[in-house]
Amino acid sequence: MAKKEQELSVEEKLKTLFQLQTSLSAIDEKKALRGELPLEVQDLEDEIEGLKIRIDKINNEIDEFEKAINDRKGDIIEAQTSVQRYKLQLDDVRNNREYDTLSKEIEFQQLEIELCNKKIREAQQKIKDKIAEREKAELNLDDHIQELEMKRNELDDIIEETRAEEDHLKVKAKELESKIEPRLLTSFKRIRKSARNGLGIVYVQRDACGGCFNKIPPQRQLDIKMHKKIIVCEYCGRILIDPELAGVKSNVSADEKKKTRKRSIRRKKDEE
Ligand SMILES: [Zn+2]
Known about the structure:
binds zinc ion; about 5% strand; mainly alpha; about 80% helix; disordered N terminus; rod-shaped; about 270 residues
């Protein structure tokens, strides 16, 4: 990469960092607008995948029960055929022993038929249970698919709405980043990452750090005002900038104005 031809003055560095912070915060805000939606969409997609797998599994189980029922039905027909054959043979028995043997065979085959019928009933009950389970899963799946579509649309709308602005902000941020020396940029990004509100540089507010709101000693405040070197908050590590240099004086007064307006509205309401 080409080295930057000229180093910025501390003042310019701070200003550029603050502008970068403003752009990045605006991007953060757009992202916050999307909120949990991307995660929720991902979760729903995962759950839908899981439900589909479960339904497939249930279908396979039902198939197996049906196959088992068919097998048992085949066994019953076989047993019934045997019973019929044995019954015919009963007509031709020559002695008691043959009669007893055939009777026992018939009894055995009938027990076999009973057992098969019992197994079939059990399997049918299991199929019923599985169908109920599948219905539940299918309802659940429908709900999830509907919800997913809703959330996806919602997310698409938000992304669509903010895309142009966000792209513009990203370009601006890149531009500003290219002006800042890599080491300073890296440490700024590190501070920003570890800070909860994503602020890597803050201005002094009411003698305190605008990030963690700890008081700044007067001498340090003076140093900040001088902007001869980059000063960080001794509590939170954020880079500190004089509000005037940050160009936020007007913002503060706008806030104040808002407050007074609110107050006057409230007063008006009270008078009503
Ligand atoms: Zn601080």
